[in-house]
Design goal:
- The protein has helices spanning 3-19, 28-44, 54-62, 83-88, 102-105, 111-126, 170-188, 207-213, 217-220, 235-246, 292-319; strands at 68-73, 78-81, 130-137, 142-153, 159-168, 192-196, 202-205, 251-258, 264-275, 281-290.
- It has two domains: 3-173, PAS domain (Beta-Lactamase); 189-300, 2-Layer Sandwich (Beta-Lactamase).
- The chain contains eleven helices and ten strands.
- A hairpin with a 5-residue loop joins strand 4 and strand 5 (159-168).
- It has a five-stranded antiparallel sheet, with helices on both faces.
- Helix 1 runs antiparallel to helix 2.
- It has 320 residues and is α+β, with helices and mostly antiparallel strands.
Length: 320
């Protein structure tokens, strides 16, 4: 049996493994294994035709990867890149890069050239694979990549150059930034914010929760919001709440709750379900405002109204 068939089978399995990860969000150790295996495949691949060009064979091996893959010789010249790599640079033919260096791709004063040269030198000197997050300046934009780089060897086991896999994580970094902004807004909010799992177990509370209720973050995590419950709220009230949010709808209402020190307070709440990518409910988030002073004012107005009614009634009786 042709030994190259086994190598192509290994390559297909490697690509399938990469494709199986959602959004290609691999653990670092997994990507390290992928780089090593890809290097091994390239090293062991022996073309049946002696006249076959090595660069062409390398491109055949790497062209199906959805990440940006490149192979350089020990002088930093590109031996092969895959189609995705070429596409990111606005080039249709991967052979365009053959023989070129990073200097040919960037302006001479580009700060990233020295960084790439140092990375290549590190690989050729230590022969130890490594991963790093770095920016890649393209003709029309700059992206953030997770780069996994390794030395690569020829069929005789000699150091032949470097190989790299670049994963575009620009969108991931943008989402991380948005999440940091959202978290900052939540932490600085004057509203109480509580996140629970679908069973009602608390997974997160913001600082305002602690300030209002007296329960610290560590005390609240793992408990149920019923720690604030009073006897003023009926079972039917909570039944309606759970039926509403479990059906995927938003619930609005008011709670009469008790702080850690026993003090009673009132909250106006909006509780919403949180869905995952397939539409399943995975969490509930409650945003609540302290309306205790409003309730106290309403109670005072009610007492004054009753007093006025009483006085009016007494006056009428006296007249009669």
């Amino acid at each position: 049996m042709n030994e190259n068939l086994d190598i192509f089978t290994r390559l297909k399995k490697l690509i399938d493994r990469m494709d199986s990860s959602e959004n290609h969000d691999f653990p670092e150790e997994m990507l390290g294994e992928i780089i090593v295996e890809l290097n091994n495949i390239i090293t062991e691949y022996k073309p049946e035709k002696k006249e076959a060009n090595n660069a062409t064979n390398l491109r055949k091996l790497i062209e199906n990867h959805e990440g940006l893959v490149w192979v350089k010789d020990t002088q930093g010249r590109f031996i092969a890149v895959n189609k995705i790599f070429a596409h990111y640079y606005g080039v249709t033919d991967p052979e365009f890069f053959t023989g070129k260096t990073d200097i040919d791709l960037y302006s001479i004063d580009n700060e990233h050239i020295e960084t790439f040269k140092l990375h290549d030198l590190r690989l050729l000197t230590t022969q130890i694979p490594f991963s790093i997050e770095e920016k890649l300046v393209l003709p029309e934009r700059t992206i953030v990549t997770q780069a996994f780089k390794s030395p690569y060897y020829d069929e005789n086991g000699n150091l032949a150059g470097t190989i790299g896999y670049l994963r575009d994580i620009t969108k991931i970094k943008q989402l991380e930034l948005q999440n940091r902004k959202l978290l900052k807004a939540i932490e600085q909010s004057t509203a109480t914010i509580v996140i629970t799992d679908i069973k009602g177990t608390i997974e997160y509370v913001n600082p305002q929760f602690t300030k209002l209720t007296g329960y610290t973050f560590d005390e609240a995590i793992g408990l149920n919001p019923r720690i604030l419950k009073t006897n003023a709220t009926s079972i039917d009230f909570y039944k309606d709440l759970w039926e509403t949010i479990l059906s995927g709808k938003e619930w609005r209402g008011e709670f009469c709750n008790r702080k850690k020190n026993g003090e009673i307070f009132w909250e106006s709440a909006v509780i919403s379900p949180v869905f995952d990518y397939d539409g399943s409910i995975i969490n509930f988030i409650a945003v609540k405002d302290d309306i205790t002073k409003i309730k106290e004012k309403e109670a005072e107005l009610f007492r004054m109204s009753n007093m006025q009614d009483l006085l009016t009634s007494i006056s009428i009786e006296n007249i009669i």
